[in-house]
Write a structure and sequence with these properties.
Layout (H helix, E strand, L loop, with lengths): L1 H6 L4 H20 L2 H9 E2 L4 E2 L6 H25 L6 H25 L59 H24 L5 H28 L1
Antiparallel strand pairs: 1-2
Helix pairs in contact: 2-7, 4-5, 5-7, 6-7
Length: 229
Protein backbone atom coordinates (compact mmCIF):
# COMPACT_ATOMS: atom_id res chain seq x y z
CA UNK A 1 0.00 0.00 0.00
CA UNK A 2 2.79 2.45 0.88
CA UNK A 3 4.45 1.74 -2.45
CA UNK A 4 1.25 2.59 -4.29
CA UNK A 5 0.85 5.82 -2.34
CA UNK A 6 4.36 6.85 -3.37
CA UNK A 7 3.52 6.22 -7.02
CA UNK A 8 0.65 8.72 -6.95
CA UNK A 9 2.60 11.36 -5.06
CA UNK A 10 2.09 14.82 -6.56
CA UNK A 11 5.20 16.44 -8.11
CA UNK A 12 5.99 19.36 -5.84
CA UNK A 13 7.79 21.34 -8.55
CA UNK A 14 4.70 21.60 -10.76
CA UNK A 15 2.53 22.41 -7.76
CA UNK A 16 4.84 25.27 -6.88
CA UNK A 17 4.87 26.64 -10.43
CA UNK A 18 1.07 26.59 -10.59
CA UNK A 19 0.70 28.25 -7.19
CA UNK A 20 3.30 30.95 -7.83
CA UNK A 21 2.00 31.71 -11.31
CA UNK A 22 -1.55 32.11 -9.97
CA UNK A 23 -0.27 34.52 -7.33
CA UNK A 24 1.66 36.46 -9.97
CA UNK A 25 -1.36 36.78 -12.28
CA UNK A 26 -3.48 37.87 -9.31
CA UNK A 27 -0.92 40.51 -8.38
CA UNK A 28 -0.67 41.82 -11.95
CA UNK A 29 -4.45 42.11 -12.26
CA UNK A 30 -5.11 43.67 -8.89
CA UNK A 31 -2.04 45.70 -8.00
CA UNK A 32 -0.52 46.82 -11.29
CA UNK A 33 -1.69 48.87 -14.27
CA UNK A 34 -0.35 46.46 -16.89
CA UNK A 35 -3.82 45.59 -18.22
CA UNK A 36 -4.67 49.24 -18.78
CA UNK A 37 -1.25 50.06 -20.20
CA UNK A 38 -1.56 47.34 -22.83
CA UNK A 39 -5.17 48.21 -23.63
CA UNK A 40 -4.30 51.92 -23.92
CA UNK A 41 -1.56 51.12 -26.42
CA UNK A 42 -4.07 49.21 -28.56
CA UNK A 43 -6.86 51.80 -28.44
CA UNK A 44 -7.09 54.36 -31.25
CA UNK A 45 -8.54 57.44 -29.58
CA UNK A 46 -8.98 59.27 -32.89
CA UNK A 47 -11.26 56.57 -34.28
CA UNK A 48 -12.72 55.61 -30.92
CA UNK A 49 -12.02 51.91 -31.37
CA UNK A 50 -9.37 49.29 -30.84
CA UNK A 51 -6.75 48.71 -33.51
CA UNK A 52 -7.80 45.17 -34.33
CA UNK A 53 -11.56 45.71 -34.52
CA UNK A 54 -13.13 43.65 -37.29
CA UNK A 55 -10.24 41.18 -37.70
CA UNK A 56 -11.28 37.67 -38.70
CA UNK A 57 -7.93 35.99 -37.96
CA UNK A 58 -8.98 34.59 -34.58
CA UNK A 59 -12.19 33.10 -35.97
CA UNK A 60 -10.22 31.19 -38.59
CA UNK A 61 -7.70 30.08 -35.99
CA UNK A 62 -10.44 28.90 -33.64
CA UNK A 63 -12.11 26.94 -36.41
CA UNK A 64 -8.83 25.19 -37.18
CA UNK A 65 -8.30 24.32 -33.52
CA UNK A 66 -11.84 22.95 -33.24
CA UNK A 67 -11.25 20.69 -36.26
CA UNK A 68 -7.94 19.48 -34.79
CA UNK A 69 -9.58 18.83 -31.42
CA UNK A 70 -12.43 16.87 -33.00
CA UNK A 71 -9.91 14.79 -34.97
CA UNK A 72 -7.95 13.92 -31.81
CA UNK A 73 -11.12 13.12 -29.89
CA UNK A 74 -12.15 10.80 -32.72
CA UNK A 75 -8.72 9.15 -32.66
CA UNK A 76 -8.98 8.63 -28.89
CA UNK A 77 -12.40 7.01 -29.30
CA UNK A 78 -10.98 4.76 -32.03
CA UNK A 79 -8.08 3.83 -29.74
CA UNK A 80 -10.54 2.86 -27.03
CA UNK A 81 -12.46 0.58 -29.38
CA UNK A 82 -9.51 -0.64 -31.45
CA UNK A 83 -6.26 -0.11 -29.47
CA UNK A 84 -3.48 1.42 -31.52
CA UNK A 85 -0.04 -0.17 -31.64
CA UNK A 86 1.44 2.65 -29.56
CA UNK A 87 3.40 2.76 -26.36
CA UNK A 88 1.28 3.00 -23.21
CA UNK A 89 2.62 6.52 -22.57
CA UNK A 90 1.48 7.66 -26.02
CA UNK A 91 -1.98 6.19 -25.57
CA UNK A 92 -2.31 7.87 -22.15
CA UNK A 93 -1.20 11.16 -23.70
CA UNK A 94 -3.83 10.75 -26.43
CA UNK A 95 -6.56 10.30 -23.82
CA UNK A 96 -5.39 13.36 -21.88
CA UNK A 97 -5.22 15.48 -25.06
CA UNK A 98 -8.71 14.39 -26.13
CA UNK A 99 -10.21 15.09 -22.71
CA UNK A 100 -8.40 18.43 -22.60
CA UNK A 101 -9.94 19.39 -25.94
CA UNK A 102 -13.34 18.82 -24.32
CA UNK A 103 -12.95 19.99 -20.74
CA UNK A 104 -10.63 22.99 -21.12
CA UNK A 105 -13.08 25.03 -23.26
CA UNK A 106 -16.08 23.83 -21.22
CA UNK A 107 -14.41 24.74 -17.91
CA UNK A 108 -13.43 28.19 -19.14
CA UNK A 109 -16.96 28.84 -20.40
CA UNK A 110 -18.41 27.59 -17.12
CA UNK A 111 -16.23 29.91 -15.04
CA UNK A 112 -16.93 32.72 -17.50
CA UNK A 113 -20.67 32.38 -16.80
CA UNK A 114 -20.09 33.40 -13.16
CA UNK A 115 -17.97 36.44 -14.01
CA UNK A 116 -18.92 40.09 -13.69
CA UNK A 117 -15.54 41.48 -14.80
CA UNK A 118 -15.92 44.12 -17.56
CA UNK A 119 -14.36 43.82 -21.00
CA UNK A 120 -12.28 46.75 -22.29
CA UNK A 121 -14.93 47.81 -24.81
CA UNK A 122 -17.46 48.11 -21.96
CA UNK A 123 -15.39 50.65 -20.04
CA UNK A 124 -15.93 54.42 -19.94
CA UNK A 125 -12.23 54.71 -20.66
CA UNK A 126 -12.77 53.21 -24.13
CA UNK A 127 -16.20 54.57 -25.03
CA UNK A 128 -18.36 52.17 -23.02
CA UNK A 129 -20.66 52.76 -20.08
CA UNK A 130 -19.01 50.89 -17.20
CA UNK A 131 -16.33 51.85 -14.67
CA UNK A 132 -13.07 49.94 -14.49
CA UNK A 133 -12.69 47.55 -11.56
CA UNK A 134 -9.77 45.34 -10.69
CA UNK A 135 -10.17 41.64 -10.02
CA UNK A 136 -10.72 41.91 -6.25
CA UNK A 137 -12.70 45.14 -6.39
CA UNK A 138 -16.48 45.29 -6.27
CA UNK A 139 -18.40 46.86 -9.13
CA UNK A 140 -21.04 49.50 -8.32
CA UNK A 141 -24.57 48.17 -7.94
CA UNK A 142 -25.60 50.22 -10.98
CA UNK A 143 -23.18 48.36 -13.26
CA UNK A 144 -24.84 46.06 -15.77
CA UNK A 145 -24.06 42.35 -15.78
CA UNK A 146 -20.94 41.57 -17.82
CA UNK A 147 -18.62 38.65 -18.30
CA UNK A 148 -15.05 38.86 -19.57
CA UNK A 149 -12.99 36.63 -17.29
CA UNK A 150 -11.58 34.16 -18.01
CA UNK A 151 -11.09 34.91 -21.70
CA UNK A 152 -13.31 32.66 -23.81
CA UNK A 153 -12.73 34.06 -27.31
CA UNK A 154 -9.48 32.17 -27.85
CA UNK A 155 -10.07 29.32 -25.39
CA UNK A 156 -10.22 26.72 -28.17
CA UNK A 157 -6.43 27.04 -28.40
CA UNK A 158 -5.49 26.37 -24.79
CA UNK A 159 -6.11 22.62 -24.86
CA UNK A 160 -3.05 22.46 -27.16
CA UNK A 161 -0.90 22.81 -24.05
CA UNK A 162 -1.55 19.08 -23.63
CA UNK A 163 0.13 18.17 -26.95
CA UNK A 164 3.68 18.12 -25.47
CA UNK A 165 2.60 15.09 -23.40
CA UNK A 166 3.24 13.00 -26.51
CA UNK A 167 6.96 13.69 -25.97
CA UNK A 168 6.97 12.34 -22.42
CA UNK A 169 8.61 10.60 -20.68
CA UNK A 170 11.46 10.02 -23.15
CA UNK A 171 12.04 13.58 -24.36
CA UNK A 172 11.32 16.04 -21.51
CA UNK A 173 13.34 18.87 -23.07
CA UNK A 174 11.46 18.56 -26.35
CA UNK A 175 8.20 18.53 -24.39
CA UNK A 176 9.21 21.72 -22.58
CA UNK A 177 10.13 23.43 -25.85
CA UNK A 178 6.90 22.24 -27.47
CA UNK A 179 4.92 23.56 -24.48
CA UNK A 180 6.57 26.96 -24.95
CA UNK A 181 5.53 27.01 -28.60
CA UNK A 182 1.94 26.06 -27.73
CA UNK A 183 1.88 28.75 -25.04
CA UNK A 184 3.02 31.33 -27.58
CA UNK A 185 0.27 30.22 -29.98
CA UNK A 186 -2.36 30.68 -27.29
CA UNK A 187 -0.95 34.04 -26.25
CA UNK A 188 -0.92 35.15 -29.90
CA UNK A 189 -4.61 34.28 -30.23
CA UNK A 190 -5.32 36.11 -26.98
CA UNK A 191 -3.27 39.10 -28.14
CA UNK A 192 -5.43 39.39 -31.24
CA UNK A 193 -8.50 39.46 -29.01
CA UNK A 194 -6.89 42.18 -26.92
CA UNK A 195 -6.35 44.17 -30.12
CA UNK A 196 -10.11 43.98 -30.61
CA UNK A 197 -10.81 45.13 -27.06
CA UNK A 198 -12.45 41.83 -26.20
CA UNK A 199 -10.29 41.06 -23.15
CA UNK A 200 -7.44 42.22 -20.97
CA UNK A 201 -4.01 40.63 -20.84
CA UNK A 202 -4.61 39.00 -17.45
CA UNK A 203 -7.85 37.48 -18.77
CA UNK A 204 -5.71 35.61 -21.29
CA UNK A 205 -3.27 34.58 -18.57
CA UNK A 206 -6.06 33.20 -16.39
CA UNK A 207 -7.37 31.10 -19.29
CA UNK A 208 -3.88 29.70 -19.83
CA UNK A 209 -3.55 28.94 -16.11
CA UNK A 210 -6.91 27.16 -15.93
CA UNK A 211 -6.00 25.06 -18.97
CA UNK A 212 -2.60 24.19 -17.51
CA UNK A 213 -4.13 23.19 -14.19
CA UNK A 214 -6.75 20.93 -15.79
CA UNK A 215 -4.20 19.30 -18.11
CA UNK A 216 -1.90 18.72 -15.16
CA UNK A 217 -4.70 17.02 -13.21
CA UNK A 218 -5.68 14.82 -16.16
CA UNK A 219 -2.07 13.84 -16.83
CA UNK A 220 -1.47 13.05 -13.19
CA UNK A 221 -4.66 10.95 -13.07
CA UNK A 222 -3.81 8.82 -16.09
CA UNK A 223 -0.15 8.50 -15.12
CA UNK A 224 -1.17 7.28 -11.67
CA UNK A 225 -3.57 4.77 -13.16
CA UNK A 226 -0.83 3.44 -15.46
CA UNK A 227 1.61 3.19 -12.57
CA UNK A 228 -0.85 1.28 -10.39
CA UNK A 229 -2.02 -1.03 -13.17
Amino acid sequence: MLAKLKLVKTPKGIDSVLMLSAMLILWIGNYSNLDLMIADSMFDGARGQFAGAGSAWVSSFQFGMILLGVALIGLAVWDTLHPLAWLASRRSALRVVALSAIFVPLSIYWLFSFSDVPCPTDLLRYGGMEPYARLLETLPASASAMACLPATQANTAWWMLALPLFCLPRRPRTALLFAGVMLLCGLAAGWQQQLQGAQFFTHTLWSAWIASFLIYLLHHLFRSEDALA
